[in-house]
Structures are given as C-alpha cells and as structure tokens.
Specification:
By secondary structure, the chain is of the alpha/beta class. The chain is built from eleven helices and seven strands. A seven-stranded parallel sheet has the order 3-2-1-4-5-6-7, with helices on both faces. Strand 4, helix 6 and strand 5 form a beta-alpha-beta unit. The protein starts with a helix and ends with a helix. The relative contact order is 0.12. The structure holds NADP nicotinamide-adenine-dinucleotide phosphate (NAP). NADP nicotinamide-adenine-dinucleotide phosphate binds next to helix 3 and helix 9. Pfam families: adh_short_C2 (PF13561).
C-alpha cells in the first residue's frame, strides 16, 4: 500500500479521467509507483539484528523490517519462543533466522553476532530492545539485586550489544541503531511511586543514546531511541499486575491520560523502528521518539 494516501487518492482520480493526462499527472503517478516499490525495498540487501524479538514490540519490529526487505536475525532467552517466532515469520516467506540470546550474557551476545555474520555475512541494523521490570513501587524500597538486574539488562547490556555490533557495521560502511526506552524514561518523576527504578534505568538508555551520537557518527552510524507509552504486550500485562494484583486484563484507568483512549499495538512501534533504521531518517540522530498516543506530550517535550 502507498504510504502517501493523498497521492494514492489522486492516482485513482487520474486513472478514472485518463483522457487528459498532463505532465503533472504523469509525474505524480510515477511518484506513487516509486513509493510502492520503495517501501518494499527499503531494506533490500540489509542485515538486521533485533534483540528480545520473539514477541511483542521486538517481534513486530523484526516482522516489519523483514517485510521491507531485510534479512533479520531474531532472538530471546528461550529456544521454544525463538523456534515459534522464526516459523511464524518464515511462513510469511520472510528471510529470518533465530538464535537464543539473553542480552545480558556476554557469551550469548557473541554467539548472536557470530551467527549473524555466518548466516548473512554482515550487520547493518540493530534494534536493541531487551528490557526488564523486576520491581514495582516506591524508589527507596528497591532491593540491590533488583537494581542490579534493571541496570544490567536495560542499560549495561544495551550499551554492550551496541558496542559489539559497531565494528561490523563500520566494516559495511555504516549502519543504524535504535535503542528502546519508554515514556517513563523521558519523564521518570511522573511515575511517582509506581515504578521509578525502571523509569530511571530507561532514562539512562536515553542518556546513552545521546552520548553515542558523536562516536557513532564518526563511523557513519546513526542512533536514535524509541520511547513507547503503554503498548499491548505481555510485558505491559505483567507490569500492570504488579500494581493491581489479580488484574488479568488491562484496566481502563491505565490509559485515562492517553488522548487516544487506547493502548498502542506492537505494530505501531515496529513501523517507527523501521523508519528510524531506514534512510528515510538519514538526518536524524540522538532523537528520542515517543510513541504514546499523545500522553503527557506537552510535559515531555520540555525534555526532548
Ligand atoms: N509494552 C509496553 O508498554 C512497553 C512500553 C515501553 C517500553 N517497553 C519496552 O519493551 C520491551 C519489552 O517488550 P514488550 O513490551 O514487547 O514485551 P513482551 O511481549 O513480553 O516481549 C519481550 C521479549 O523480550 C524477550 N526478552 C525478555 N528479556 C530478555 C533478555 N534479557 N534478553 C533477550 N530477550 C529478552 C522475551 O522473550 P524470552 O522470554 O524468550 O526472553 C520476548 O521476546 C522492554 O524493553 C520494555 O522496556 C514496553
């Protein structure tokens, strides 16, 4: 489908009135055709790694990037989830392979990179998506173990997987990276006593993204950060159950402040990741992109 609905509409109007096709009409029709082809081929010849990508947002991003022509390596901690996700994507004739990788384990990251190089010959794109939320509640009550886990997975392993992929991207002449924060990371104090330690770790992901812009730009690699609001995934369900024990669905009050009055879908993040990784975002680096149905946008924009 065209990504430019207005042009598509114009095209159908022109097709109906074929007797007076002007140069302008021809140019616009050519642009529509270009748009269709362009979207199909946006990542032709590119190799992408998406971590934490056997369900939810990571999966949706991997699917979108593969649909647009990339060869994609997906991964997560559990073999059965990797197998199921690879099958689902290959059933759509997408060029996808998978391997187990706990993003916080050095040997797993090394295996992931080696596997990608062996399978597809290089690395151009990375979506570093893994994140955990092992604690909910008041900031001063987080245990040291929970704090360590938050920072080990959300911050340290994000930095390390990026640093380990960079030489391989540079070898191919450059690349693009998306890190994964959250609206809570943009505006951690707004989480009050709900989940400040998680929010702080995701603020660190924003800081990490910003400081990496310069050293990566020297290697022709762009990095940007996606900051979703509540997205309908099992992560969000677990997160909400921490605050509302016994709650199995997603309570309405959780999106009361959202102007769209609904949660986001993983695919609505996948398309943003694809944009940020693509040449359509070629002059963007160090940007923190909220995908949140407008929640607190005015407040957050003070920090962006
Ligand atoms: N959902 C939201 O509302 C929301 C909003 C903002 C940001 N986020 C971010 O999204 C990420 C969670 O994704 P999701 O919401 O799509 O949840 P999800 O559907 O539960 O998916 C999480 C994925 O991550 C994998 N995973 C978990 N820990 C991992 C690790 N240490 N290493 C590698 N893979 C790991 C899981 O598979 P295995 O169990 O097999 O490892 C699964 O594939 C986090 O970074 C979170 O901060 C989510």
């Amino acid at each position: 489908m065209s990504s430019i609905p207005m042009l598509r509409q114009s095209r159908s109007l022109f097709l109906r009135g074929t007797s007076r096709v002007t140069d302008l009409h021809k140019r616009m029709m050519a642009l529509c055709a270009y748009d269709d082809e362009y979207l199909k081929a946006r990542f032709a010849g590119k190799v992408a790694i998406c971590t934490a990508s056997t369900s939810g947002i990571g999966y949706a991003a991997a699917e979108r990037i593969a649909r647009e022509g990339a060869k994609v390596v997906i991964c997560s901690r559990r073999q059965e989830k990797v197998d199921a996700a690879v099958k689902k994507l290959r059933d759509q004739n997408l060029e996808v392979s998978g391997i187990v990788c706990h993003q916080a384990k050095k040997e797993d990251r090394q295996r992931l990179i080696d596997f990608t190089l062996r399978t597809y010959g290089g690395i151009d794109l990375l979506f570093a998506s893994a994140g955990v939320s092992p604690f909910s509640g008041y900031m001063l009550l987080v245990t040291e173990k929970q704090w360590d886990k938050l920072f080990e997975v959300n911050v340290k392993s994000t930095f390390l997987i990026i640093r380990e992929c960079v030489p391989h991207m540079a070898e191919r002449g450059g690349g693009a990276i998306v890190s994964h924060s959250t609206t809570a990371g943009v505006f951690p104090e707004a989480t009050r006593n709900l989940n400040m330690p998680y929010a702080v770790s995701k603020s660190a992901v924003i800081g990490l993204t910003k400081v990496l812009v310069e050293p990566l730009a020297q290697r022709n690699i762009r990095i940007n950060c996606m900051a979703p609001g509540p997205i309908e995934t099992s992560f969000l369900r677990r997160y909400i159950q921490q605050f509302v024990p016994g709650e199995t669905g997603l309570p309405k009050q959780a999106y009361d402040e959202n102007f769209m009055l609904r949660f986001g879908e993983p695919e609505e993040c996948g398309s943003v990741v694809a944009f940020l990784l693509s040449e359509d975002a070629s002059y963007m680096a160090g940007e923190i992109i909220p995908v949140c149905g407008g929640i607190n946008l005015r407040e957050m924009s003070k920090l962006l």
